[in-house]
């Protein structure tokens, strides 16, 4: 990891008690950050953050700020006094929204604008935006023969998603585009990370959407993740990458964060081999038609020094965590004979 500013800057994390947010707070503490503004949805539970290693150390000031991301003055209070901001909060669910604009698009887009506006007012040095592969795919205009594997130059096709009622990619794409427009207009230092499906132990009490994808697969789901898949990444690698992007002076633009690009069907095969006791569906044919596989798809992060955790380790740790938290029943391993 690149050497950071010394002493470490005060930082704000939005969505700090969610799956990625909690891992980011944990990793910031491990990396010597002592002044952390943890911004959470009003009334939601941040207790687990205070069980993280180092959170209660006398030198650490982990402060909770209750802020709906749509409440600009509450967001401004959370950001004030920070030099770095990690914008992580955004609605993330496997359920189809009843009112896509209200439930997904507005919180993603206006929330991003509120964070950037607050960061500008507070003269924040850099904002790291948590975008997604859902701002990169689906993109039917990407020609695998001429363009090869997906990279940061691809943008999700909004009209294609809208016509198929795929509102999560719409929300993430519009939010990231809004961030770039705002950054350019105001000359702000913004960097975006675009993680694939994040797996790993759940630090938070509730089940998050990406770990639910693995849970459903273990329970026999035949869903292909056609529109929402490029690959998987350990959530601890995402947190490390977010900090790397705050600390690396030369970081700029978009950073795809995945341990490879491959079909969801191949992922299911890996899960099935690791956990044969669960009824994991065997997919035939391509789950992501035409997707070009690529091992080192996150070239830009690899060049910055990030080393990715093997996907098998991420799957194993997620399954153990889902079992320990009672989301997944233990099953006997079939006998070898
Ligand atoms: N997990 C993945 O595979 C993945 C991949 C790529 C990108 N991402 C992005 O990473 C970020 C975090 O996702 P996650 O996986 O950690 O999901 P998560 O656990 O559901 O975290 C999302 C967080 O955003 C907060 N939030 C949502 N609406 C809010 C609002 N109006 N005001 C304040 N906070 C709000 C949620 O708070 P409450 O739950 O308390 O309401 C939660 O803490 C999101 O931006 C997501 O799009 C995730």
UniProtKB/TrEMBL annotation:
<dbReference type="GO" id="GO:0016616">
    <property type="term" value="F:oxidoreductase activity, acting on the CH-OH group of donors, NAD or NADP as acceptor"/>
</dbReference>
<keyword id="KW-0560">Oxidoreductase</keyword>
<keyword id="KW-0521">NADP</keyword>
<dbReference type="Pfam" id="PF01370">
    <property type="entry name" value="Epimerase"/>
</dbReference>
<dbReference type="InterPro" id="IPR036291">
    <property type="entry name" value="NAD(P)-bd_dom_sf"/>
</dbReference>
<dbReference type="InterPro" id="IPR050425">
    <property type="entry name" value="NAD(P)_dehydrat-like"/>
</dbReference>
<feature type="domain" description="NAD-dependent epimerase/dehydratase">
    <location>
        <begin position="11"/>
        <end position="252"/>
    </location>
</feature>
<protein>
    <submittedName>
        <fullName>NAD-dependent epimerase/dehydratase</fullName>
    </submittedName>
</protein>
<dbReference type="InterPro" id="IPR001509">
    <property type="entry name" value="Epimerase_deHydtase"/>
</dbReference>
């Amino acid at each position: 990891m690149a050497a950071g500013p010394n002493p470490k800057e005060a930082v704000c994390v939005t969505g700090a008690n969610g799956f990625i947010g909690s891992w980011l707070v944990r990793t910031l503490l491990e990396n010597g950050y002592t002044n952390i503004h943890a911004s959470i949805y009003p009334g939601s539970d941040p207790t687990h953050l205070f069980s993280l290693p180092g959170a209660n150390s006398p030198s650490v000031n982990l402060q909770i700020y209750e802020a709906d991301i749509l409440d600009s003055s509450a967001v401004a209070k959370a950001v004030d006094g920070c030099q770095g901001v990690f914008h992580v909060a955004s609605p993330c669910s496997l359920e189809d929204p009843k009112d896509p604009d209200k439930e997904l698009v507005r919180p993603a887009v206006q929330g991003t604008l509120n964070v950037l506006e607050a960061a500008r007012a507070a003269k924040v040095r850099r904002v790291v935006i948590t975008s997604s592969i859902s701002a990169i795919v689906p993109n039917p205009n990407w020609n695998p023969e001429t363009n090869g594997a997906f990279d940061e130059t691809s943008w999700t096709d909004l009209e294609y998603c809208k016509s198929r009622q795929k509102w999560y990619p719409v929300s993430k794409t519009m939010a990231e585009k809004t961030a770039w427009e705002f950054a350019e207009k105001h000359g702000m230092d913004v960097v975006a990370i675009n993680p694939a499906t994040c797996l790993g132990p759940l630090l938070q009490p509730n089940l998050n959407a990406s770990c639910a994808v693995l849970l459903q697969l273990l329970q026999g789901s035949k869903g292909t993740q056609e529109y929402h898949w490029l690959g998987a990444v350990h959530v601890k690698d995402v947190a490390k990458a977010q900090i790397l992007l705050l600390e690396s002076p030369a970081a700029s633009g978009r950073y795809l964060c995945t341990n490879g690009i491959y079909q969801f069907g191949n992922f299911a095969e890996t899960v099935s081999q690791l956990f044969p006791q669960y009824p994991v569906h065997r997919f035939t044919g391509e789950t992501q038609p035409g997707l070009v596989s690529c091992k080192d798809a996150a070239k830009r992060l690899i060049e910055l020094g990030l080393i990715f955790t093997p996907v098998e380790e991420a799957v194993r740790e997620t399954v153990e965590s889902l079992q320990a938290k009672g989301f997944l029943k233990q099953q006997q391993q079939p006998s070898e004979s």
